């Protein structure tokens, strides 16, 4: 199983330019994506379950981690590799208890204090943001556009992998990684791209550039 977080796709059908999520996922896999998160906020649990089962089969084939946004029950139901949690979701320790010690548990944070707390609770990686301005997710003012320096501060405060999220594109991904992030998580930069496979390759290249600049 690929343990890289370099280019991390978060799915969302209503930001996919009329394409289905499986189409976008297939293109991203071909383009070399490292991890995929099933988000799909505007669907029912049953719709997400059916989509998740289809995605589970394809990601397992490709050796790519499949992570479910928020829903620990859904992650268990589709045998996903893990779950990504926010402030309003179950605690990290509860997710670990329900999914098992092998599950990948991600946690969204925007501050050093939050990052340290999540690491202490047992999170396997952190989604840090929103780094840049974004329209993909409503966030509180203090969590909006926290900037590159905040990423650097979190990186220096914890020892688990960091994924920069929020407004990330091929134009700024390298900056986030150069600041210490292990990778970048995106929605529209891949899902809404004219060519999602090409966009995935370009983001992967930007991540590599950022690592070279460290």
Report on this model:
With 214 residues, this protein is α/β, with parallel strands linked by helices. It has one domain (7-213): TIM Barrel (Alpha-Beta Barrel). It contains nine helices and eight strands. It has helices spanning 21-30, 45-62, 72-77, 92-99, 112-121, 148-157, 173-178, 188-191, 196-213; strands at 7-10, 35-38, 66-69, 82-85, 104-109, 125-128, 162-165, 183-186. An eight-stranded parallel β-barrel has the order 1-2-3-4-5-6-7-8, surrounded by five helices. Helix 1 links the parallel strand 1 and strand 2. Helix 1 (21-30) crosses helix 9 (196-213). The longest helix is centred in the first third of the chain and has 18 residues, at 45-62. The model has no long low-confidence stretch (mean pLDDT 94).
Name some characteristics of this structure.
alpha/beta, TIM Barrel, 8 strands, 214 residues, 16% strand
Concise overview:
By secondary structure, the protein is of the alpha/beta class. 42% of the residues lie in helices and 16% in strands. The protein has one domain: TIM Barrel, CATH 3.20.20.
Secondary structure topology:
Elements: E1 7-10, H1 21-30, E2 35-38, H2 45-62, E3 66-69, H3 72-77, E4 82-85, H4 92-99, E5 104-109, H5 112-121, E6 125-128, H6 148-157, E7 162-165, H7 173-178, E8 183-186, H8 188-191, H9 196-213
Parallel strand pairs: 1-2, 1-8, 2-3, 3-4, 4-5, 5-6, 6-7, 7-8
Helix pairs in contact: 1-2, 1-9
CATH architecture identity: Alpha-Beta Barrel
**How many structural units, i.e. domains?**
1
How much helical structure, as a percent, in the residues? Answer: 40-55%
Assigned CATH superfamily: Aldolase class I
């Amino acid at each position: 199983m690929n343990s890289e977080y370099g280019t991390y796709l978060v799915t969302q059908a209503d930001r996919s330019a009329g394409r289905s999520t499986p189409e976008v996922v297939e293109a991203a896999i071909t383009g070399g994506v490292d991890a995929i998160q099933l988000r799909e906020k505007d669907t029912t649990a049953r719709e997400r379950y059916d989509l998740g089962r289809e995605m589970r089969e394809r990601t397992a084939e490709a050796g790519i981690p499949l992570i479910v946004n928020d829903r620990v029950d859904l992650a268990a139901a589709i045998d996903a590799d893990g779950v990504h949690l926010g402030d309003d979701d179950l605690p990290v320790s509860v997710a670990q208890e329900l999914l098992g010690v092998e599950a990948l548990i991600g946690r969204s944070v925007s501050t050093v204090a939050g990052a340290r707390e999540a690491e202490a609770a047992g999170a396997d990686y952190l989604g840090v943001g929103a780094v840049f301005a974004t329209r993909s997710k409503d966030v509180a003012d203090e969590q909006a556009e926290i900037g590159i320096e905040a990423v650097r501060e979190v990186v220096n405060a914890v020892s688990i992998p960091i994924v920069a999220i929020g407004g990330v594109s091929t134009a700024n991904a390298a900056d986030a990684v150069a600041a210490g992030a292990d990778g970048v998580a995106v929605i529209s930069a891949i899902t809404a791209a004219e060519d999602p496979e090409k966009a995935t390759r370009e983001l992967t290249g930007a991540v590599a550039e950022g690592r070279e600049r460290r």
